[in-house]
Amino acid sequence: MTPISERPARRADAELNRARILDAARASLAESGEATMQAIAKRAGIGQGTLYRHFPTREALVLEVHRHDVGELVDAAPVLVAEHPPREALRLWLDRLASYGQIKRGLAGALHTATHKQLAGEGYGPIINAINTLLDACKKAGVVRTDVEAEEVLLLVGFLWRIEPDDDWSIRTSRMLDLVMEGLARG
C-alpha cells in the first residue's frame, strides 16, 4: 500500500501534468486547429494514456483550453482594476483579449466541433461581467461615456478575431484598440 505521505505528491504531479497538457494543447491548437491528441501528448512530454486519463476526448481537451483561457480573462479584470487606473485597466484587459483572440483564431476549427451553445453559454456571461467590472470603474472615475454597455464593447472589439496573424498583427491591433478607447472616452 502507498504511504499517505506520497499521495499528495501524486496529486501535485497530476496537476502538473494537467497544466502541461493544457499549455501544449493551447500552443498546438493555436498553430493548427487540426492538432492531434498524439501531437499534443508528445509536445507535453507525456504518454497518450496520461493525456486520455485527463481528457478522454479531443473535444473535452479543446473545451477545457477554452474554459481555462476565458477564466484567466475573467479573473484578470478585478485584478487590473485594483492595480491600475480604470482607463489603463480597461486597455490592459483589451490587450489580453486581443492576445486571446489570436489564440482563439487558431482554435476556431477545433472549437467549431465543440458544442457552440455550450461555449457561448459558459463564456459569454463571465466575459460580459468582466467588461462590466472594468466599465463600472471607468464610469465611476469619469473616464468613459456613461451610456456604454458591456455588450457594445464586446461587439466593438469583434475585429480582434478577424485580423490576419501576420507581422503587422500587433501594430494593427494596438491601433484599432486605440480607436476603441478613443470612442469610449467621455466627452
Automatic annotation (TrEMBL):
It comes from the Bacteria. Keywords: DNA-binding, Transcription, Transcription regulation. Signal peptide: none annotated. Residues 15-73 form the HTH tetR-type domain. Residues 36-55 bind DNA. GO terms for molecular function: DNA-binding transcription factor activity; transcription cis-regulatory region binding. It holds the Pfam family TetR_C_43. This is TetR family transcriptional regulator. It comes from Kribbella kalugense.
